[in-house]
Amino acid sequence: MIQFLALLALGVLAPIQNPAAPTKSAAAPMKNAAPRAARFPLDAKQASELFPLLRNQDPGAEDEFDPALWFRHKAGLDVAKTHEEILGGSWRLRTNSLGLRMDRELLPESPAVSLLLTGDANMEGVCSNNETIAARVEKLLAGLHPAETVEAINAGKGSYSFYHYTLVLDRFAARKPKMFVVLACLNDFEECLGPYHHISRTPGPKLEPGVGEAYMEAGKRWPDALAQGLGTLWYFKQNPKELDTALAVATALFGDMAGQAAALESEFVVLWCPPFFGSDPDKTLKEFAEPCAKLGLARADVALADSLTARFLESLHSLRITVVDLRRHFAEKDEPMFWQSDRHLNTAANALIADEITSQYEAMAGRKTAAKSR
Question: Taking residues 118-147, what's their average pLDDT?
Answer without folding.
Answer: 98
